[in-house]
Amino acid sequence: MPSTFYEIYRGSPLGIALCDSVDDYVRSGEITEELGRIVLAEFDRALADAMANIDARASIKGHLRTYRNCDDVWYFSLRDATFKMHNKQTVSTSRVKIVACKHGDAVALDLGVDPETGEVIPGSRRGKRG
Amino acid sequence: MSSSSTVPPDVAQAIALIQAAYAPPSSATPAAIQAVQGLQVQLLTLQRTPASWGLILPLLAFPGDANVQFFGAHTAHAKIARGELDSLTEEQQIGLRDALLEAAGVTGRPRVVRRKLYAALGALALRLTPGNGASEGQWPGWVQGTVEVLVRAGEPSAHVHEFLAGAAEDVSGANLLPQAKIEMIDSLRSAAQLVLQSIGTVLAASSSTQADPDPAALPAALACLTAWLPAGILPGQDIARLVPPLIALLPNPSSPTPTDKIKSEAAAITLCELLGRPPAAWGARVLLEPLFVWTARAFAFISPGNSEDESLDRRYSPHAPPPDAARALRSSSKLLVALGEAGVEWVAGSIVDPTRVALTDASVAGTSQMGMEAQGPTRGFLARHFLRVMLALTAVDHDDEDEDEDEEGDSALGFWYLLQEALWEIPEGNEYEDDGEDGEPKAESPAQKARAAHSTAAYAALVRVLRSKVVWRRGWGKERVEKFPAFRRDVGDTLVNAYYVLRDDLLVFYVADVQARIDAGRGWEDVEATLHCLRAVHEALDPDSAGATPALSILFGPQVFGRLPAGYARVRRTALGLVDTYSGYFATQPPAALGAALRYVLGALTDAEPGVCLQAALALRSLCDANRRALAAQIGAFAEVHAGIGGVPDSEKAKVLQSIASVIQALPPTEGIAPVEALVGPVLQRLGEALGAAGMHPEAAQQAAILQLDMLTGIAKGLTRATDVMAFDDDDGGGVEGAAVRVAREDQRTVAIREALFQAIARVAELWSADAEVGQALSELFRAITALPADLTLLSVPAQPLLGVVCRAAGRRLTGVWLALATILIAQLNPPPMILALQAAPSAEVEACVQSAMGEIVGSVLGVLGAPGGMVENPDIVQEFFACLDRVAQDFTTAFCALPDGAFDALMQCAISALALQERYSLVAACTFLGTFIHRVALYAPISSEQLKPLQAHMIRVHGRAIMRALLCGFAGAAPRSVTSNLLELLAALVTRWDENVVNEAEGRSALGGGGARGWVPSVVFADDFYPSRAGREAKERFVKTVVSSRSVKKTKEAANQFVIVAWGLEGSSFGYSSVSSG
């Protein structure tokens, strides 16, 4: 089953740790692959919900090298970026890639299946801000 | 229906178990809870047995107990969903289908049982409907068939729609193969007309004036429609026919009959869904225009009478709607916001459009009362009216303190953001009266001018509304207070959009507003709100043009900043934040412009309120940093600030010192020596006192030392130039300014300061080498006082002696902090050149320093990690250690050659062991180090025949196979799967750098053959003691064959990746690919 939420948070430290743990359980036969998939899909949903409710803000300054937008997912590649957090803390980095997408359930709403090919057709509904 | 007395014993036993498990608990004692849990386990166990198929129908037929019936339906659903259906023969499956259908046809079941039963039918359809290759499925027309059974049994339409909604949801959420998915969607499509017809019938009945016999019918029908929309199989033109009756159900003030609240809410929810995902072929006439007509009719009180004749400003002028109107707006806010989101482009493009819209049946009623002509209002009228409605909604939004959270609508703020974007995106096409010459700006058409006038008037009204929304009110409840900052921030975002439309007019309005309120002596809350609005729009201001805005000079002059209400912490914090935000603006003004703001900030530094003091320190820091040169002329005044620093709370002293230091930095370096001495001297003295008191009062001394270290860090940061180092173009020494700093550094006074600073650091590191807090403070200080040559300050200390201090501290007590600091300092010792052509090798002195440091660090670390369990128990040390080694491998590769006898081999064994760690950061660090080291040694070996070439040969001979073995075991499962990408990089380093020639030469073989590092793979993989995995001999052979025969790194990596999947037993499963995460 394709996850109806973005899977980008699986690459976070928390997501990586969860994937590794689920891998171990599946390998040892303690849980089925199906359940493993459900756990990861639930993680995708929970993270998308949690991120949507975060109030923290940061402003970013840097040199924009490249950007692109595909299926409402934006990629920004920045050099010499400075993040100014809401609490005045600043963090600088020489390179950073930002992936921005609308709230996760937008994927679920937009999922359709092409009757000819059976492939998932991404929708084009306007997303929420942020 | 059977009674409990006639049921077979096994069924009776199951019923008794269910009734006991579902019975209300007699007590909440642990024993009672345990007993219930025991019963639940028994039920689950029972449910998993093949015999439980036989329980389903008797349980569903059990009269009078909903729990028993529910468990029967639940058992059917759970067994089917779990895939236990395969245990039944084809005939039994058909029998089960018919039995469940018959059970679904029994009327009068409780809702929970009914829904579970529908879920079981849906699950069964997902397994029986798709065909198996050539053969057809076992349940064609399952939707129609089930509906027929339900209708024949006399189930009300609400129940039928409940089933239909569940059917669509089950299919869209099912995990099916593509072909099966297509077949299921086809099965839904074949029932589409039935569904639409059924919904249309209920809708027509609900729209009639006659009393509705079943109030649940309409919500269920509309919920069904909402469930079927995402599948995209209901024809758009058929759904369009449902729109007029849906709009007719919305609140209609002009209707003689009162609106049914349940019906209107259900209709509004459905219309919101349709607005969110309208069928592709729908134009604005199908849904948007009828809804705008409804809005104009339902909220006619927003623009009563002949408001179109008024001036634009008055027409959009906000006024508080009466309570009834506010309630009406709030109750429809979700629909209005959804309409605004979906129709924003229509609104932006239609503001001055004179075209009349066609009225539908639903929208005709009531148009005469609002002054609309019989042939329909113009688009421009509808768009402008909608703007006023949204203004009114914004004005009442979030107003009601006691608002039920569930009823809270979406915020109207988002509409203004979308509208501003839509206004900018209107194509300029045919609206120009004349084309103009090439390259010359074209004249605005009357339509464009009119649109601009309307949008400006609307946003001017909006900024007035929003200002009133961010006024702090005394007496708010806790929840309201907690939500207020987030709401204010959202309002601030909307103001930015308003600024893009209004530009300087917005600043002029707010500055005049705050001035008028101060003149009138209005409450501080109103003044504070306006200051907040001014602060919020700063990010949109163009820094080049902001300086020319007269409004800002009034704001920061004596007219406003000199007369702000005193004694209110909230006003002071906001005003200080405003200065902080606009600190860069003063750099574009004459120095005198700083006066009022600077006085305000300095006056707040010693405020008793912690929040005010913090904000003042932050504002001062930003102000001084951005206006160094202007403030350097007033250095005497800053001496007074320094003299009074005793009154500033400890937590803010570092910021104040940083502010003063940043002003000192703007002085000629030789003139800055005395002020720096005056700043640093007392801090070092207090640090010395803390060190002296460590024996008597260790905790207090440690806290005092950390405070002084923070202050030193602040001073060092302040002294660092604000200018971008990339701006220097003559050399990497900082140009003329850099030369002046270097001269000043030779002054005996600065030499003495740095010497004292270094001694203090060395003593702190010696005394508190095990303390994490001190380590963190030192880490910050090191970052501030070590710099690139271009960034040298009077306080900068060379990295070499500091590295010695760190190594000695690590020797006394090894922590990750010291290793991280060593990494930073080693990187400082080989700084990147500003110009690539200037790249020079590190000096012999620096090389020797790093070699010595390496010896000490490796010795200390191996002592800790070599102990049993040392690597597992100290993951932070492992990670920082290999990160440090990676840095050395990159910049000082030959330093590894100078390690004492045996230390290098121990180091390599440590790295190899780390490849099997389960803590991924340690493993990744070790992997990265080994990859870098192999690459660097191979790269420099040809030009370092005396040092690196023998080292490479030694590595290949002694450790080569062990590295390969650890790597392949990692692929086989010894390492977590998330580090596969890191292991693949290491494999790529091995096979590319240690090719046949290199390995043969290292092993003293003159003949060709062996395959280099690739040649080690078969012996490792087929060894008896290789890591046990799911990869059989065939998979291993496939992997080995690709690795040995391929010369392509890409193919080697692909083969290794596939081997990982096989070894983990995930071949042929989508889980293996879907769960893999990048490392």
Low-confidence blocks of residues of chain A: 106-130
Number of strands of chain A: 5
Structural class of chain A: alpha+beta
The CATH class name of the largest domain in chain A reads Mainly Beta
Q: State the CATH superfamily name of the largest domain in chain A.
A: Transcription factor IIA (TFIIA), beta-barrel domain
The helix tally of chain A amounts to 3
Biggest pleated-sheet summary of chain B: none
The count of DSSP E runs of length 2 or more, i.e. the number of strands of chain B, is 0
Query: What proportion of the residues of chain A is helical, as a percent range?
Result: 25-40%
The rounded Rg of chain A comes to 18 Å
- In whole angstroms, the N-to-C terminal distance of chain B is 61 Å
Low-confidence stretches of chain B: 365-371, 401-409, 430-436, 724-732
- Mean pLDDT across the residues of chain A is 74
> Could you name the CATH topology of the largest domain in chain A?
TATA box binding Protein, subunit D, domain 2
**What's the oligomerization state?**
heterodimer
How is this fold's topology laid out?
The complex is a heterodimer of chains A (about 130) and B (about 1100).
Chain A: H1 13-28, H2 33-52, E1 58-70, E2 73-85, E3 90-101, H3 105-110, E4 112-113, E5 120-121
Antiparallel strand pairs in A: 1-2, 2-3, 4-5
Chain B: H1 9-22, H2 30-48, H3 56-60, H4 66-81, H5 90-104, H6 111-128, H7 142-152, H8 157-173, H9 178-190, H10 192-207, H11 217-228, H12 236-240, H13 243-248, H14 261-276, H15 288-298, H16 312-316, H17 323-331, H18 333-350, H19 361-364, H20 379-396, H21 413-424, H22 446-469, H23 478-502, H24 504-520, H25 524-536, H26 543-546, H27 550-555, H28 569-581, H29 583-586, H30 595-604, H31 610-626, H32 628-632, H33 635-643, H34 650-665, H35 669-693, H36 698-719, H37 735-746, H38 748-767, H39 772-785, H40 799-812, H41 816-829, H42 844-865, H43 870-873, H44 875-891, H45 903-914, H46 920-940, H47 948-974, H48 980-993, H49 996-1002, H50 1017-1021, H51 1033-1045, H52 1049-1063, H53 1070-1074
Helix pairs in contact in B: 1-2, 4-6, 5-6, 6-8, 7-8, 8-9, 8-11, 10-11, 11-14, 14-18, 15-18, 15-20, 18-20, 18-21, 20-22, 21-23, 22-23, 22-25, 23-25, 24-25, 25-28, 28-31, 30-31, 31-34, 33-34, 34-35, 34-36, 35-36, 35-38, 36-39, 38-40, 39-41, 40-41, 40-42, 41-44, 42-44, 42-45, 44-46, 45-47, 46-47, ...
